Amino acid sequence: MGAGAQQRVFDTIAADKDVDGFSAESVGLLVQNRPKLVACTPAGVIELLEREGIAIAGRHAVVIGRSDIVGKPMALLFLHRDATVTICHSRTPDLPSMCRQADILVAAVGKAGLVTRDFVKPGATVVDVGMNRVTDPAVASRLFPAGHAKLASFQSKGSVLVGDVHPDVAEVAGAFTPVPGGVGPLTITMLMMNTLRAARARVGSSVAG
Amino acid sequence: MGAGAQQRVFDTIAADKDVDGFSAESVGLLVQNRPKLVACTPAGVIELLEREGIAIAGRHAVVIGRSDIVGKPMALLFLHRDATVTICHSRTPDLPSMCRQADILVAAVGKAGLVTRDFVKPGATVVDVGMNRVTDPAVASRLFPAGHAKLASFQSKGSVLVGDVHPDVAEVAGAFTPVPGGVGPLTITMLMMNTLRAARARVGSSVAG
Asked: Do the bridges between strand B175-176 and strand B125-128 make them parallel or antiparallel, or are there none, so unpaired?
């Protein structure tokens, strides 16, 4: 199914049941900073940062990736929390130096281990939204040193799940989220939160009506 | 009228007549890169840059200001044309150094002469969206040197219309738009363009129906 066909299917979802936050109306309300149902992954990232006490206001947030479901809503959520926001992508000329400016760096491109330690300012918060299944032994050994548990797992199973952030980044980042087990569970949680929110709004409106 | 009341009025405008591009649906469609009616000032800036042959793809565009009607749609239009985009605002810690990274700098904050030459990388394109009526003699003399025609005009009329960009920027910028007479006329033109577009869509749909 192409992107156009996918969007036509999304467009048939009633705005008040749009728990993924993918409809034009949901997105427009987010831009106007009066969100109703917000895309789950970026909402989960904000939840995670806020619960960890990581300041957003006045910081420079750099988002790698400009998808409708992560990159763009992520940038808007940061902007509305008073971060200065930069959106990078495949056409950004010097990606590492742009990313090194970030106080908060979010990687959402789907390229295994793209973000290496030279992308990260010491002490920065790094959020890894990527989720890539690596099946190429060369890629696996670029990501993990000999003897690493993940490399052993790759060798026995023939594949391993990794993020967009190279594991070495742990040595420079002030805080970072693992893959799997980082942002992923938050996405599911925010989907349930949106479902609850939509259900409450429905009950509220039927009571009001 | 507060921002909330203003938005409630906007919300009553039918999406297919929303020639300002201010409705949640128009904004959402812009985010999803399938625009119908786009906010006129940022659309005018793109028109101006494209007609002047100023490359956007692969460049770093920095937007000062995050309003719904200029800053945010401007950032999205740049992003969809493959620029790396940064949005700055009143909470950006070191605004001049952030702006000095820009290949294309758009000022849309409404502060007379905010953008001084130390904000501008030599050769950068500077687009001034600000439109401020200066009535304070101290501000006027900070903006214009003794003997400048605008200062003489201020002294005779008691006010002068200036942008967000200090006139000195002309000495470092590769290209820049004046105020008045720069972006302003484009805004009006794009409003007429949107009106034509909306009328055509209406005729098209009545023919189709």
From this structure: parallel
State how far Cα A77 lies from the chain centre. Answer: 12
Burial annotation B115-136 (CB, 10 A radius, 16+ → b, else e): bbbebbbeebbbbbbbbbebee
Dist. CA A155–CA B73, nearest whole Å: 48
Residues near B126 by Cβ (< 8 Å), separated by ≥ 6? B105, B107, B115, B120, B165, B169, B173, B175, B176, B177
Dig out the tokens for A65 from the structure.
């990736």
Phi first, then psi, for residue B61 (nearest 5°) are -100, 125
Q: Is B110 left (phi over 0), alpha (psi -120 to 50) or beta?
A: left
Tell me the residues of A at the B interface, defined by beta carbons under 8 Å apart. Answer: 7, 23-29, 31-34, 57-58, 60, 66, 68, 72, 75-76, 79, 82-89, 91-93, 98
What is the value of ipTM here, to two decimals? 0.94
pLDDT tens for A156-208 read 999 999 999 999 999 999 999 999 999 999 999 999 999 999 999 989 866 54
Domains and CATH numbers, chain B: 1-37 (no CATH), 41-129+168-196 (3.40.50.720)
pTM score, whole prediction? 0.95
Q: Which is nearest to B66 in space by CA: B36, B89, B40?
A: B89
Which residue of B25, B57, B92 is in closest CB contact with A84? B92
Contact (CB, 8 A) for A150 and A97: no
Give the other-Cβ count within 10 Å of A114's Cβ: 19
CA-nearest of B59, B81, B74, B144 to B107 is B74
